[in-house]
Design brief:
13 helices; Histone, subunit A; alpha/beta; Rossmann fold; 9% strand; single chain
Length: 308
C-alpha cells in the first residue's frame, strides 16, 4: 500500500487474545495514539468486568474512548462513529498513523465503512418490545429473531437485549430481515485502512478467557457489580460479566454458577467475534504469540513502495 493518505491500523480479534498489549507496543514504536472500539470499555463505572487497560498502560500511550461515558448515558454506535471520526481528523493532523483497537466488530465497521441506512421505526414498536422483554424475558425475543432473521441471529450477541430489540424493531417496522439493510452502502473515508488480527487455537482462547474471569473475580468484580446493581436496567449493563452476577444477587443462581455462566457466555461471545471477523477477507491474521517486532515490520513493508 502506497498512499499519501493517513493510515488507520485496526487491531481486531477475540476477547482476551492480547490486543491491548500489542496495540500499546505498536503505538509506542510508531509514536502515535490509540482509539478504543471496545463498546464495553466506554463506561467509567465498568472497569474490572470490561478489562479496561491498567493505569500504567493508559499512561504509557494516549488512549481515546476509554471510560469517557457513564452507564447513565445513552451512547449509540452512531454517536461513537461521529465522535471517533472527529477525533481521527484531529489526530491525523499530528500522526500519519493511528491505531483502532477492539473486539466490537460493529464499532470497527462504523469507523471504517460507516453505518447502514435503516428504515424508520414505527411509533411504539420499541416500547412494545421493551414491555415484552420485561414480561416474557429475553428467550421469547431471541426465538422471534431466529425465526425472522436467522442470518443475523448467528452473528449478534444473543444475550444482549439491546441488540436483539434493535433488530426486531427494524424487522417489525419494515417486514424485512434486519440483515437485508446491512452493508447497502460504504462511506468514503479520507484515510486508508489495514486490518491486523490476533488469533489462537480455540482451546487457547477459551483457557485465556477462563483465566481472565478468575482474575476479574479476584480483583473485585463481585464488588463492582454490587455497586452497579442499582443501575442493572441500563443498556450498558446488559452485558456479560454483570448480567450473570445480577442474577446471583436476585437469588437465581449460586456464586459458582454465576462465575461459570460468565465464562460460558464469554466463550460464546468470542465465537461470535470470530464469525464476524472471518467475513472480512482484508484482515491479516497473526498468531497471538507473534513478536510485536514482526508485526512492526509487516506494517512498514505495507507502507513501503515496491521496487521494479
Amino acid at each position: 500500500m502506497v498512499t499519501q493518505k493517513p493510515l488507520l491500523v485496526c487491531i481486531v480479534g477475540p476477547t482476551a487474545i492480547g490486543k491491548t498489549a500489542l496495540s500499546i507496543n505498536l503505538a509506542k514504536h510508531f509514536q502515535t495514539e490509540i482509539l478504543s472500539a471496545d463498546s464495553r470499555q466506554f463506561y467509567q463505572e465498568m472497569t474490572i468486568g470490561t478489562a479496561v487497560p491498567s493505569k500504567m498502560e493508559l499512561d504509557s500511550v494516549p488512549h481515546h474512548f476509554i471510560q469517557h461515558k457513564s452507564v447513565l448515558d445513552d451512547y449509540s454506535v452512531g454517536d461513537f462513529e461521529r465522535d471517533a471520526i472527529n477525533c481521527l481528523e484531529q489526530l491525523f493532523q499530528e500522526h500519519p498513523l493511528v491505531f483502532l483497537v477492539g473486539g466490537s466488530g460493529l464499532y470497527v465497521d462504523a469507523i471504517v465503512t460507516g453505518l447502514d441506512d435503516f428504515p424508520e421505526v414505527l411509533p411504539n414498536v420499541r416500547e412494545q418490545l421493551n414491555e415484552e422483554f420485561q414480561q416474557k424475558g429475553l428467550e421469547s425475543l431471541q426465538k422471534e429473531l431466529n425465526e425472522k432473521d436467522p442470518d443475523y441471529f448467528q452473528q449478534v450477541d444473543a444475550q444482549n437485549p439491546q441488540r436483539i430489540i434493535r433488530a426486531l424493531e427494524v424487522i417489525r417496522s419494515s417486514g424485512k430481515p434486519f440483515s437485508s439493510f446491512r452493508k447497502n452502502k460504504k462511506t468514503t473515508r479520507h484515510f486508508d485502512v489495514i486490518y491486523l488480527g490476533l488469533d489462537a487455537d480455540r482451546e487457547v482462547v477459551y483457557q485465556r478467557i477462563n483465566d481472565r474471569v478468575d482474575a476479574m473475580m479476584e480483583s473485585g468484580l463481585l464488588e463492582e457489580a454490587q455497586h452497579l446493581y442499582v443501575h442493572r436496567r441500563r443498556n450498558a449493563l446488559q452485558t456479560v460479566g454483570y448480567r450473570e452476577l445480577f442474577d446471583y444477587f436476585d437469588g437465581n443462581s449460586t456464586l459458582p454458577e454465576a462465575v461459570s455462566e460468565i465464562k460460558k457466555n464469554t466463550r460464546r461471545f468470542a465465537k461470535r467475534q470470530g464469525t464476524w471477523f472471518r467475513k472480512n477477507n482484508e484482515i491479516h491474521w497473526f498468531d497471538w504469540e507473534t513478536p510485536y517486532e514482526e508485526i512492526v515490520n509487516f506494517i512498514k513493508e505495507t507502507l513501503t513502495p515496491k521496487k521494479g
